[in-house]
Amino acid sequence: MEKDDLDRLLLKAHEQDDHAALIHYYTKAADEREAAQDIDAACFYLTHAFVFALESGAPEAETLNARLVAHGRAHRLEF
Questions:
Q1: Secondary structure of the chain as H, E, C letters
Q2: Which of 17, 20, 45, 18 minimizes the C-alpha distance to 31?
Q3: pTM of the prediction?
Q4: Local mean pLDDT, 10-residue blocks, the chain (79 residues)
Q5: How far apart are the first and last CA of the chain?
C-alpha cells in the first residue's frame, strides 16, 4: 500500500473515531516500516495501534504489546 493511501485511510479513521480501523492501519504502517528496517518509525505506529487497542478493549492489544516488548519499547503487560 502506498504511504499516501495509508495516510488518507488513517485520517479518515480518525475523523470517524473508528478504533478498529485505527488499530488495523497503524499496525499496517508499523509492519511496512518494520519491513524497511525503520524500527523507530515502526514502534511509533505500534504504540498508536496499542493505545487504540487498549482504549477499545481489542484483543490485538496483547500482540501489539508483545511486539513493543520485543523491540525494547515497553514492559510486558498481563491481559
A1: CCHHHHHHHHHHHHHCCCHHHHHHHHHHHHHHHHHCCCHHHHHHHHHHHHHHHHHHCCCHHHHHHHHHHHCCCCCCCCC
A2: 45
A3: 0.93
A4: 90 97 98 96 98 97 98 93
A5: 31
